[in-house]
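Supplementary material to the annual report.
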Amino acid sequence: MNLFNIFDTITQVDPEFNERVSPRREAIRNMMSFGKKVSIAAMPFVLSDLFKQAYGQTPTDVNGVLNYALTLEYLEAEYYTMGAAASNLVPSGKPMGAITTIRDHEVAHVAFLKQVLGDKAVSKPTFDFTAGGAFAPVFSDYDTFLALAQAFEDTGVRAYKGQAALLKGNQVVLTAALQIHSVEARHASHIRQMRRARGGAAAEQKPWITGANDSGIGAAVDPVYAGEDTKEQAGVDITTLPGIEGKLSMATATQSFDEPLSAPAVLDIAKLFIK
Amino acid sequence: MKETTSTQENFFEGNNQQESKRLDRRRFLKVAGAGAAGIATLGIISCSKDDDHSGPDMGGEGLYFGSGDIAILNYAYALEQLEAAFYIELANKPYGGITNWEKTLFTDIRDHEIAHREFFKAALGESAIANLEFNFSGIDFSNRDSVLMTAKTFEDLGVSAYNGAGWLIKNEAYLLLAGKIVSVEARHAALVRDLIDNGTFANSEVVDDAGLDVANSPSMVLEAASPFIKSKIDVRDLPTY
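Predicted assembly:
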């Protein structure tokens, strides 16, 4: 299913649909159509124009969030680009297919955010994915590569969530951030499945996060999962709610809600990999 | 992708029993647009254009979602009810040849959706809509393909619903909660897609060239979900666009 099929289908069912959509709705649709049909290189003018149409001007705090997101996307894009290019690292076939899919999304996120920010975009940091030697075999040992990929994806999901409030009410930017956020969660789900298939420390791992650090990577990534073991949401203790057989379990309570991570906590993690 | 097509036909077209309901909804969407086109947060109006304002269809006797953030929370609650009901049915009638790992995954997902449903119910308190009734007659629960394609449709739709409704939410705490839930739905969506065809967790059906997932307005999502919802709902004050 994709958005354009839905538009088409709804237009068939409800011929007045297009007349009912608001100008903003149309702006978003156009923006996404451009994403599909126009090469990224041709987008800057068009996109910034659309953004100006939708808001007038981009507030400073929104730019801060976008640059924060861009920094994380730079990191992920370079990580997967290097991983996919490393010889004898990612097995050919399904694994390489998945890694290149994820790489292409991260590269697209970088391009998208840079176009949105224009000359306000921060430049790419220089990365050291061995984190000063802590992950020395990151581009020679496949399990290490996948482990770090998981840490980045689960961190990314938490990072976007942590900034949602600053974008509240912002149709274009919040929506785009959410659209990136859920793609990162899809990646996290798949990387977790890839690691499970490898067995070893990740053999019991699921596509969702159970408790705090369930990665099997060790205490090095505890900060990535800090607070994921909460069972309370908006004052409601999930383990007091009725399930199929008695109350919902602690595992269910932690799996069913992904927690946000503050910008300082995320940057502390990211700094390990920035020279 | 023949199955995709048939599921989508089923999904959007429903069956004959739903035809009249869908037409009612068409009429009411048309009315909604007539007075409010161009306003970003136009409310859906369920009254008939020519009649008095207590008109039926999804108004009056339907379950009223409320307005503003409460309506959006009830909208999320309705979708979580739908998903929970589907996975409860799946767990009760597992398809032939289901593996232990698939059972574990679907039991987990069922419990996540129940957690989401019960959370919204508790959080909404007296503002919560009643339990919805669903129509799963188009799903062959004994058939793995039918079940997985439906699961994929529901999960992708759920992701698109939260992505598309986020900016309509006024309260920061509610927005954060929506964010906490949508990424779990995206984890489900990716997993279900991989069970159908490994590697399709984020393919071009759901992620565009800019790397963005799908986002849909509440009215689009409800339109898509309507074949599965038997109860009458009154979403006249639900923010949408």
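The CA atoms of residues 190 and 207 of chain A lie 7 Å apart.
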